[in-house]
Amino acid sequence: MIAGFLLTAYAALSLIVTTSLSSPKPIIIDTDIYSDVDDVGSLAVANVLHNCGLADLRGVVINERSKYGALAANTINTYFLNGDIPIGAIRPLSDDTFFDKYRYLDSLGSAQDNSITIISIGFLTNIAELLESPPDQHSSSNGRELISSKVKELVVMGGTYPAGWEFNFGGLDPASTKAVVENWPANVAITYSGAELGGGIYSGYLLPTHSPPNSPILAAYQWYVGRGSTVRESWDPVTTLYGILGLDGFQKLGFKAPLVFANSIGYNSVLDNGTNSWVYDSKVTNQHWLELADGVTNSTVSFLLDQFLVHNPLDSRCI
Ligand SMILES: *[C@@H]1O[C@H](CO)[C@@H](O)[C@H](O)[C@H]1NC(C)=O
Ligand SMILES: *[C@@H]1O[C@H](CO)[C@@H](O)[C@H](O)[C@H]1NC(C)=O
Ligand SMILES: [Ca+2]
To answer: What does the record list as coiled-coil region(s) (predicted)?
Structure first.
């Protein structure tokens, strides 16, 4: 089966045309990087696309309480020669809650209007707090105004579509989920990548055979998945891929667009326990959830993700 999908995918690769690359897309990644290895996969995707000029990774913000989150993110960035990318850490390094508002204010405040894509691949704790944060010495705008003016799109791995319960929404901090989903500014796009999308796309097949020596990506997948396997669902990596390439950017990699919006109208609704459901309402058009495009198989997306997971940091091509 794996051989079959590799063949199909290699056929797709052979069609790659060289296109001039547009300017890198500015992104911030907000990650929990503790409960699953797919956050590691996401940072690999982001670093490779940063190094090949499609993304501008402005910062990584950690949204869980472990003192190891920032260290883990920095290990991956450093492996890809991007150890200088700012990371919002829990300070002091302890398991206390801490929201590194300064990191967000700094990254957003210095950004051009309507330019930043925030990719949320964990809990919505930081973003909820940012939405409610008042002006202070770091910023004369409040958090909501800053989001409204600087953020182009919030891409969220969370929820199940059209309805269900999922861990990022309901696991640790459903109150923040509700706050973000209900209070997100109407002028800024918000796009959801649900449990069902990434949960149906496995990746990591090529890690044991194609990784550079000492790859922390390989090590993370080996340790996490265990029992000799490195294959894992791709919730966060698929979300990150969309966050960087959008619906149309895949052509730059020689792939036809694998993702589409599943809806054109309506909004996400969240209960106190994080259970979500879609409400169709023609007055709301800034909210979408993602699904695979017609005729696209999970194998194609899996193959593309694997190229990033095994990518040699010294190779500045995208794939
Ligand atoms: C694709 O989906 C099928 C059916 O759910 C599953 O058995 C298979 O493992 C998936 N393959 C990949 C590469 O994700
Ligand atoms: C969430 O709350 C709703 C409404 O109270 C309930 O029907 C549902 O079973 C709950 N879901 C979970 C996973 O607890
Ligand atoms: Ca995650």
So the answer is: none
CA of 220 to the centre of ligand 3 (A): 14
Domains present along the chain, CATH in parentheses: 2-309 (3.90.245.10)
Taking alpha carbons only, the member of 171, 176, 68, 175 closest to residue 130 is 176
Give per-residue pLDDT as tens, 107-138. 888 899 999 999 999 999 989 989 999 988 87
Residue 146 has a pLDDT of 94
Instruction: Considering every ligand atom shown, identify the ligand nearest to the alpha carbon of residue 166 and give its number.
Output: 2
pLDDT at 99: 57
Q: Which of 7, 202, 235 to mutate to test the pocket of ligand 1 (most atoms within 8 A of CB)?
A: 202
Distances (CA, A) of 153 to 20, 149, 206, 314: 24, 11, 32, 30
The C-alpha atoms of residue 40 and residue 31 are separated, in whole angstroms, by: 9
**More confident call, 45 vs 106:** 45
Q: Which residues surround ligand 3, an ion (CB under 5 A)?
A: 32, 39, 121-122, 236
